[in-house]
Write a structure and sequence with these properties.
By secondary structure, this protein is of the alpha+beta class. It has five helices and ten strands; from the N terminus they run E-H-H-E-E-E-H-H-H-E-E-E-E-E-E.
């Protein structure tokens, strides 16, 4: 049996001008009819441009402050993506709301760095999407867990089997993609976007 293949398309506001209203799918056309202001938003234009480029069925879509990520692949795999703009915040206070004690220890050991916090946040949001859980209510039920064998792995409700990657985009956004089981993933940047080093998680 072939290993499932996932593709994550990534773009920022430089691709907004390539958005084609005439190429929207039926669901998005109805959304714009109900809320015409959507069509003027950069996040909408970039994310729908990505949908119009997707070579495989869309699994998950995320946008933040003018950038967007679209994860596409086969319908048979549970997968999710999240992208967030990196900005200064009170990470220790936020972690008390969304991170487990183990995750707070990891963040603290790394000096509460913005990249580390947003890496964890985007992994968690991507897991919620892939597992069909609720944001923000279920943030504590997903993320990084250290198991009895000493390995720190992605989990949903304490169960292993999840894989993932994280990378910075243009030094301004953090992106994570997750999936259940085995899969290969390819990152494709459009419009001049660039990814940093990729962190992998099991």
């Amino acid at each position: 049996m072939d290993t499932p293949h996932l593709i994550c398309l990534i773009a920022d506001n430089r691709t907004a001008a390539l958005y084609r209203p005439d190429a929207l799918n039926e669901a998005d056309r109805l959304r714009v009819q109900r809320n015409p202001a959507l069509a003027t938003r950069t996040d909408w234009q970039v994310s729908r441009y990505l949908k119009q480029q997707a070579p495989l069925p869309v699994c998950s879509l995320s946008h933040s402050k003018g950038a967007a990520a679209l994860l596409c692949g086969c319908d048979a795999i549970k997968a999710g993506t999240d992208i967030e703009a990196i900005r200064p915040r009170d990470f220790a206070a936020l972690a008390g709301w969304v991170a487990t004690e183990n995750e707070r220890r990891i963040l603290s050991a790394n000096g509460w760095q913005a990249d580390g916090f947003y890496r964890l946040w985007t992994l968690k949001e991507a897991l919620l999407k892939a597992a069909g859980l609720d944001f923000p209510a279920d943030m504590m039920r997903v993320g990084l867990q250290t198991f009895s064998d000493g390995l720190t792995c992605l989990h949903v409700n304490g169960r292993r089997g999840w894989q993932g990657i994280s990378t910075a985009v243009n030094g301004s956004w953090m992106l994570s993609c997750v999936w259940h089981g085995q899969a290969e993933i390819e990152l494709q940047t459009l419009g001049g976007s660039a990814c940093g080093p990729v962190e992998r998680y099991g």
